[in-house]
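Session log. Operator J.P. requested a structure for one protein chain; no other inputs attached. Running the standard single-chain path with C-alpha cell output.
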Amino acid sequence: MNEPGSLLAQPLKAPAAGRALVYVGLFALGAVVGAAGSLVQAGWFPGGLLLALAGEAGLCVGGARALGSRGGAVAPAGGWMLAVILLTASRPEGDFLFGAGTGSYLFLLGGMATAVICATLGLGRQPGGDGVRLGK
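Structure written below.
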C-alpha cells in the first residue's frame, strides 16, 4: 500500500507562485479594508461599526472559500491587523486616528475577534479517497 499517511506527518511545501500571489493580494486587501473600516466606524457610529466589521468578516470568509484553506482567511486578517495597529499609533505631532471612545474599542476588539473566528472556522484540508470518513 502506498498511502501518504496523516496530514500532520506530511512535510510542509511552499505554495505555488500563483497561490502565493493571491495570499499577498488578500493581505493587501485586508490592509485596505482595515484602513477604510477605521474611517467608516467613527463616521457613522452604530451602522459604520457594523459595516466595517461585516466588511472584514466578508473578506476573511471569502478568502477562505476562494482558496479552500484557512490561509485564505488568515492573510486578510493579518493585513487588517497590521493596518489597524499602525493607525492606532500616535505621531510625534500628537495626531491619531482613533479616539478614546467606545466605538473605537469595539472596532479594535470586535475586529480581532472576527479575524480569529473567521480563521478558526475557515475550511481546513481534508484528505481525499473513498475510505476517508471526513470526506463523506
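Operator note: The chain has a mean pLDDT of 80.
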